[in-house]
Amino acid sequence: MVGGPITWAPIVRDGELGLDGQDEMSDDSRYEAMIRYGATPAGVDEAARRDGLDLIARIRLLKQAFGLSFTEAKAITIGSVTPKTLEERARELLEGFDALCRKLDTD
Questions:
Q1: CB 49 within 8 A of CB 80
Q2: What is the 3-class SS of 32-64, one letter each residue?
Q3: Which contacts of 13-18 are long-range, i.e. CB under 8 A and separated by 24 or more positions?
Q4: Across all residues in the chain, what is the average pLDDT?
Q5: Quick count: other Cβ atoms within 10 Å of Cβ 15?
Q6: Residue 96: pLDDT band by 50, 70, 90 thresholds?
Q7: Alpha carbon distances (Å) from 58 to 32, 34, 52, 67, 99
Q8: Of these four, 43, 71, 86, 87, which has the most CB atoms within 10 Å of its CB?
Q9: What is the C-alpha to C-alpha distance for residues 63 and 69, in angstroms, rounded to an integer?
Q10: 23: β partners
């Protein structure tokens, strides 16, 4: 693994049992397996977000697992919440601005 093993305790949720009645693999080992099989930081973050990890826990996970800086990890976590690219957002803003200008011209 790139950044070394993840060191905090796994998240335990009541009622999460595998098909054989045993607890499912811990979130940590799940993320380690994802990384071992080539998952990207964004992919791991998305899985952690779906698993209910808060922003700080996801940033820690990315920093430790991938050796990222705080700024790099934060950018990935924010990107998973707001997946629009800057170009898409700029296009939306321009379309809204154009619509407003047309409305003002007709009034």
A1: yes
A2: HHHHHCCCCHHHHHHHHHHCCCCHHHHHHHHHH
A3: 13/52
A4: 75
A5: 4
A6: confident
A7: 14, 15, 10, 13, 39
A8: 43
A9: 6
A10: 17
Average pLDDT (10-14) is 41
Q: Is 4 left (phi over 0), alpha (psi -120 to 50) or beta?
A: left
Closest CA to 59 of 11, 21, 49, 22: 49
Residue 85: how many CB atoms within 10 A of its CB?
A: 10
Phi/psi at 17 (nearest 5 deg)?
-120, 145
Q: What is the pLDDT of residues 46-74, one digit of tens each?
A: 899 899 999 999 999 999 999 999 999 99
Looking at residue 78, its amino acid is: I
For residue 17, list its beta bridge partners. Answer: 23
Number of residues that make up the chain: 107
- Which amino acid makes up residue 21? G
Q: Which residue has the tokens 């977000």?
A: 49
